[in-house]
Amino acid sequence: MMPTRQGSFRLFRLWGIDVHLHWSWFVVALYSISTRIPNYASPVWGVLEYLALFLIVLMHEFGHSLASRSVGGQSDQIVLWPLGGVAYVNPPPRPGATLWSIAAGPLVNVVLLPVLFALWYLDHLQGWRTASQDLHAFIRAVLIIDVSLLVFNLLPIYPLDGGQILRSLLWYPLGKARSLMAATLIGFVGGVALIGVAMWETSLWLGILAVFLLSNCWRSFQVARVLRRMEQLPRRPEFACPVCQASPPIGNYWRCRQCGQAFDMFATAAVCPHCGASHETVTCPDCGNAKSLHAWDVTLRDV
Q1: d(C-alpha 78, C-alpha 72), whole Å
Q2: Of 80, 115, 180, 223, which has the maximum CB count within 10 A?
């Protein structure tokens, strides 16, 4: 289950994106800071190290959000919680747009690497290890944090960035549904392997994270099965979604917003046969975007 705004409060709004912090973050922060403080002579550096982790995760999530917007997608919310952060992005339903929206997060970590390595080199050049052991330990810790987040996020376990990047690449040859199914099956294998590592290392935290990833893999696999069934439905070639270009299925797959009865929008010109209500927009069952019936008509697009 992914985090939501429930149980969270808004920290700030930047570039039209609301950043929320879950209450449980404070509990884990206290524990995490307490484990970092013994590495420094001054406890302030332990707090700064955890704040650096917080900042890197936040920059990573902003990378996702801004990339999604750059390709015409939507993103207006980031939620930070103990297992990291989640940027709620909705890129256009195209493999390239999805790939860029997901890959931009790890790319932020890649961009940070030369900056952190430069500080590491300056640390050795200036002899900070002798003059200020806390500063030396802090730079080393932040560099390790950035590399660790980059490597972990690129693991091909759905819904980690690596798993979603894999899904986006598979989308080109396999299509939307089968690519998601393949990525989640690979994610199951990776999740089980991660549980094995957690048991080997006796890491409760890694075990919790592995279970979380496996549960999300399972939900995504169920979504893939539904998408696959939808792809196999008979379609109306004379209509196509103006966003994802998918033709609508034939059948009662829409519900009237007034009476709640199911009917076929395209068989009745978007007029409910039960109550007579006329619908201004038709929601695409494939991508979720709502557009006017006129915009769906392939024959009228070149007129």
Answers
A1: 18
A2: 180
pTM of the full structure? 0.84
CA 221, 287, 181 angle in degrees (round to 5)?
Answer: 20
Cβ–Cβ under 8 Å, residues 98 and 91? yes
CA-CA-CA-CA torsion for 204, 208, 209, 211, nearest 10 degrees? 130
Residue in the structure block whose two tokens are 């390709």 = 71
CA distance 69 to 16: 11
From 14, 16, 11, select the one nearest 26 (Cα to Cα). Answer: 11
